[in-house]
Each structure stands twice: as C-alpha cells, then as structure tokens.
Amino acid sequence: MSEALLDMRDLCVSFRTARGVLPIVEGVSFQMARREILSVVGESGSGKSLTALSIMRLITDPNAVMTGEIWFQGRDLLAQPAEEMRRLRGGAIAMIFQDPMTALTPVYTVGAQIVEQIRVHQDVSKSAARKRAIELLGAMGIAAPRDVAGRFPHQLSGGMRQRVMIAMALSCDPALLIADEPTTALDVTVQAQILELLLKLRTDFGSSVLLITHDMGVVARVADRVVVMYAGRVAEAGATAEIFQSPQHPYTMGLLDAIPKLYGPKLKRLPAIPGAPPSPFERPPGCAFAPRCAHEVPACDTRPALAMVAGRDVACWRAGVR
Amino acid sequence: MSEVLLEARSLHKIFNVGSRFARGGRKQVQALSDISLEVHEGETLGLVGESGCGKSTLGRCLLRLYEVDSGHVIFKGHDITRMREAMLRPLRADMQMVFQDPFASLNPRRRVGDLIAEPLRVHRYGDAAKIAARLEALMALVGLAPEFLQRYPHEFSGGQRQRIGIARAIALNPSLIIADEPVSALDVSVQAQIVNLLADLQARLNLTYVFIAHDLSVVRQIADRCAVMYLGGIVEIGPADAVLHAPAHPYTAALISAVPAPDPASRQARTVLQGEPPSPTNPPSGCRFHPRCAAARDVCRAERPVLRDWAGRSVACHFPLG
User: Fold this and answer.
1) Element (H, E) at B120
2) What is the Cα Rg of chain B in Å?
3) Which of A70, A162, A297, B302 lies in disulfide reach of A77, CB 3.0 to 4.6 Å?
4) Mind listing the pLDDT tens digit for each residue in B268-301?
5) What's the rounded Cα separation, in Å, for the pair A292 and A250?
6) Poorest-pLDDT segment among A88-102, B83-97, B225-239
7) Which residues contact B16 (CB under 8 A, 6 or more apart)?
8) For residue A213, which residues of chain B lie inside 8 Å, CB to CB?
9) Nearest-CB residue to B263 (from A159, A244, A255)
10) Of B187, B214, B264, which is closest to A214 when you measure between CB atoms?
11) pLDDT of A133-173, one tens digit each?
12) Do residues B162 and B100 make contact, with C-beta atoms less than 8 angstroms apart?
C-alpha cells in the first residue's frame, strides 16, 4: 500500500462525563488504499460509528476529546480549520447513514436536495446540476429518475431513499464514501441490490468505501479488507478472505462461530460467546475481551498491542501460539 | 406427528389506513389474505418474510391481540375467534408473546420483579410467598441472578432484557409462545445466547413456538417447520430444511439467494431480485409475486395460485421449482 488514501493513526475519542473522562475509541489505526472497500465491523458500543464520525469531524459534543491523526490526501483532517472541513464534507468525503429518512429533509423534493448539494460544492448552473442529479439517480438503478427527482422523501420506499442518499453522496465525485450501516434498515432482497451498487462504485466512480457494519455476512459479500473492533480497539485487521478463513483473535473466532449458518450441518446449540461486551465505564484494564475469552492466560492482565501474525494484525497475546 | 395445538383457518385481516379526508378517502390494506396453517405441540414454526408481509399481524391475530375479519383461530380445540373476553382470559395464560424490542416492552418505572410478577398476580397465581418463590425459579430458568429482581430495566443490557421478557412470558407455564423477532435487535454474540436459551426452555417446559423473524439463518437454527409469507399470504410452508435448502417457490429462492453468507468464498453471481414488494393497498392481480418473478407467465397474472402439496411441503405457485 504505497499511497494510502486514508491513514488513521492512533485515534482516541473520549467524553468528559460526571464520572470522569470516558474513553470510547482507544487508539485505532488503519489505512485505506484507493478504490478499496474496507469494512469496520463490531457490535454496538464497539466505537465503530464514532470512528467513522471522527473522519468527517461530525462529533459535535462539546465534551468530546479527540486525539490522534487522520491523514487524507496529504492533510491531517483533525488539524483542518472548520472552513476547510466544510468544503471536504460532501465534496471529497461523503457519508451515508442507516436511516435515509432522517438524513433527507421532508420539505423539498429529492431532486432539489441533490441539486443544492452539487451547487454548494461546484460552480454550475441550476439546469446543469439538475441534469447531473437525474443522471446520478439513473446510475443508481432507479427506473424513472426524472419522475423520482420530483418526489418527496416520504413518497419513496426505504430502498429508493437509500439510493437517493448514495446518489447525493456521489454527486461531487468523492474520493471516499463512508457508509454507516447503509443496509441495516432494509430487507434482504433490497439489501442485496444496495450492496451490488456499492460494489460498482469503485469501477464507475473510482471511490473508496469505508463500510461500517455489524453484519459479517455483509462484510464477506463486499469488503476487500476488514477491521474488527471490540470495546473501542482494533482486535484484528486484515484481508477479508484470510480473516474469515482463519481468524486469529478469539473474539473474531467467537463472532464467526456464533452466526447461525444457512447451510452445512445444523448444530444442536450455537457456540455463543458468554457474557456481553463491557460498558465503557467498566472496561477491564487488560485485554478487554479476556473476561469472555476461553483462552485467557495471566498475560491478558496487560493490554496486547496489535502485532503481525499470519499476514494480518492481531491484538492477542496468544495469537500464533495456538 | 404430535397433536395440533393451534390452527388458523382461512384468516383475513384488513386494516383501514389514512385519513378519510385524503384524496380517495381511507384506503384498505389487506394485511392477511386466506391464511391457513397448523402448529403442532412441541414444535417451532418459523414465520419469515420481508417487512410489511404481514408476519407480525399474523402473530397478533393468532393470539387474538388483533381481531380477524373472517376465518377461525382454534387453540387447544377452542375456537377463540369470537370467544367472550371472560371465557378467553384463562386461555390467555396459556399463550404468551415475546417482543422484539426489550427496551420498549418493559416499563422503565417498575422493578424487574414487579414486571415478571404481574402476569402471576393478574391470573391469581397465589400469595406473596408463592409468587416470590416462582420469581426466583423463573430467574434461574432464564439464567439471571435473583438479586436482579430488585433492579430497574435500564440497568440491564439488551440480552438481559430479552431474558426478562422471556421470564415474563413463561411465568404462567404457557404451552404456546409467539416470539416476534426476539433476537433481531441483539448483537450476534448475544443473539446466539438467546437462541440457545429458547431451545433449552422448549425442551424443559415442552413449549411450542411460533418464531417470527426476517433472518433465515436464525430460523433454520431454531425452527422445525417454516412458513414464508409474501404480501399477506403464505407462499410456501413445510419442513425448514426442505423449504430453505430446496425452495419450491421462486420468492423463497430469491429470498435465500439474497442472504449474504458469512463466507467470502461464496461470493458467486446471484439472482438479485429486482424491485421491491408492491404496496398491499393495491396488490397485483393473480399471483402477488408475478411482477418480480422471472418465471411469470400469463396464468400467473390472471389466476391466484393456492397452496398445494409439492415435494414434501405446500407451495402456492403455478410453476414450482424442482
């Protein structure tokens, strides 16, 4: 990876609360190449969404404290002035969310919203922007783009709204598209359509996609590389095929085993991971997964750092030993 | 085969939606049309389909939480469809529901002990000492510590709350439990625990489940038989392995192929279903699936297929697969 598009170095996000400073994201580092689809996967509370919001600098809570560096196209996003960030958001970096209904305003037609987005970032005429908006809607697989552009968000189905959101996000040819659980609210048949669309983005638009999800099935379907997060840290990161084939971190193993399978022998009981992820208030000082881990050893009382094992990064003392 | 515990005969349910001052007045949504099925004692019937297909409505109609417009629900030999509330009440203790969202289904102002004791009090289970003993036994059954009875719902994680919901449902020793997406809101590692718990309780308490879900892999893990719904009707019903591994209805086949498998090796080209389910206010003529079906012919547009026996299951299709 000679030329990384995005290089996150030791990102920490914490919140000042009545009970002291609460670390949520603790030292996350990863890199993304051009045209790569990278997935950040984790359970609720793992810090995956905050990681995505940090790239956009969209954490507006005055009590949030962010440290680290996020290098994008040769500049550190965390050091950019607000003015510059506003230019980047929706321009070079775009984001789509789980619920497109809340991200679209109900009082304008979706066409008008895409036109506005284009004209904020580019100096083009209204009619040219409108033409581009309809073109984009068509490229998103919408059958009657001219007709859809004239409709309001509430007149569209969930899948259509998500297509509109993606069209809007792509309107300024972003180098990076951040998709935060883009298909979680959708039915599987519509999810399959949206995933096909995301896969096409890199060839048609040359965009990289950072896909935030909790669904290992979605990861397996579209991601080139995957970052598995647990309790605010990276547990394991590497090529999707390798991680699914031979997971090295006990959490990744447990997560993959716990998913019920549609094919293969039917198990009498699902191999569940005991317990639940720790709340940010009670993260253990050592390895955060140790209390739920079947392979715990005394060394787990201190935090393992990410280390290269079997061609990927793993944060586990016993990785490679087993 | 064991005895039939619950039977639905030709259920129809219509909702009136919209304002009567709207253009065209109120609209009618046919939520259930001609649903017939049997649930046998001790089995789990999985009910799957996309959002809006009527699976939750069916679950509620089976418990008479909704009144049906026509048809009959027969529970343990009693026709409960038109039964007076006073007659129905003792039967209600025998049929319970577990809801999807354990955050919404537990009153935040009441202690867990109170919440679980409520059905016991309503149905005059016994004096305070007897109820207290029952509460402790229930907590042990669902794998929670008895101290938790004194706590409030917000102090629990999603998985623990779902255990509380289950404890409340089994408090009166019911024979039937209708579980509406009981694990959909949970993280994978916790979801596996709850699926295992439901299986354990079924074996210990001889429970019969109707398990409503949109996740086919979860249904395959837990269900003996599986019914697939589309736009208010059952399109296929039969042994879970037959339906999910050798689907006879094109819709079932499309649904299965849309599920992203947690295995990057299975990234083959799929038959991605085009379009989205049509609106139930204006269902298509003939077979309701025909506008999205690749195999549709003239007869599919004209005539609605009825369920008929086919390769070990029942299927509603003019040209079943296989």
Assistant:
1) helix B112-122
2) 21
3) A70
4) 656 678 777 787 888 899 999 999 998 899 999 9
5) 9
6) A88-102
7) B26, B27, B28, B29
8) none
9) A244
10) B187
11) 999 999 888 888 999 999 999 999 888 999 999 999 999 88
12) no
Average pLDDT, integer, range B30-58: 94
Helix (H) or strand (E) holding A253, with range, is: helix A250-258
Contacts of B154 in chain A (CB under 8 A): none
Retrieve residue A126's tokens: 């209204």
Which of B221, B245, B264 is the closest to A240 by Cβ?
B264
Can you give A286-302 as a three-state secondary structure string?
CCCCHHHCCCCCHHHHC
Give A1's pLDDT tier (boundaries 50, 70, 90): very low
Beta-sheet pairing, B308-310 with B313-315: antiparallel
How many C-beta atoms lie closer than 10 Å to residue B69's C-beta? 14
Query: Does the pLDDT of residue B41 top 50, yes or no?
Result: yes
ipTM: 0.87
First to last CA, chain B: 26
- DSSP output for B301-315: HHSPPPPEEETTEEE
Best of B50, B161, B163, B187 to mutate (most A CBs within 10 Å, chain A)? B187
- Which among A188, A189, A244 is the nearest to B264, CB-wise? A244
Given an 8 Å threshold on Cβ–Cβ distance, is B190 in contact with A276? yes
B4-17/B27-40 β-pairing? antiparallel
pLDDT category, B103, cuts 50, 70, 90? confident
Nearest CA in chain A to B220: A262
Quick check: B22 contacting A, CB < 8 Å?
no
Q: What is the pLDDT of residues A265-302, one digit of tens each?
A: 888 899 999 988 888 888 999 999 999 999 889 999 99
B122 Cβ contact partners less than 8 Å away, ≥ 6 residues apart: none
Cβ-Cβ contacts under 8 Å, B216 against chain A: 188, 262
Q: Per the CB < 8 Å rule, is A192 touching B273?
A: yes
Closest residue of chain A to B52, computed from CA coordinates:
A187
Chain A contacts in chain B segment 262-321 (CB below 8 A) = 262-267, 270, 272-274, 276-277
**Residues from chain B contacting residue A43 (CB–CB below 8 Å):** 187-190
A220:B266 CB<8 A: yes
Residue type, B161: R
Q: What's the pLDDT tens digit per position in A182-226? A: 998 888 888 998 998 999 888 888 899 999 999 999 999 999 999
Task: Closest CB to A187: pick one of B50, B220, B241.
Answer: B50
- The alpha carbon dihedral of A117, A123, A129, A133 has a sign of negative
Which residues of B fall within a CB distance of 8 Å from A254?
Answer: 189
Predicted confidence (pLDDT) per residue in B161-186, tens digit? 999 999 999 999 999 999 999 998 89
Rounded to whole angstroms, the Cα distance separating A73 from B83 reads: 70
